[in-house]
Amino acid sequence: MDQKMEQVDIFLYFHPKRIGKIKEGTYKYTLSCRGQQITGEEKTGETTEYRLALLCLISALQRMRRPSLLTIHTDCRYLQNGHQSIPAWKENGWTRVGNQEPRNADLWKQVDKLFMGHAVRFKIEKMD
What we know:
Structural class: alpha/beta
């Protein structure tokens, strides 16, 4: 790949932040590259905090048009840990220890496809 990859920062925000079921959630993302920004915001119905975080990440990744160096800024370690687990899940047929499917596997499979061609790193930081 001769073409130099662009650095893109993706900032993920979602509310409410609590474990368990959420009646309604909101997420917002901002993609920043070379001084330009693209934002998106969405409301969802009943979900969980982790699904809300994954939906936010998926929506942001769907805006990407070319392979890039992605830095994902979030306060959700679930996303970082899941990203690190994807290779093992795939190797084991999308199962984890105990032959169980990972939680939210449907969304993790989408994330995996959307990450293809990108170099990805996570930066865990307080997000407001």
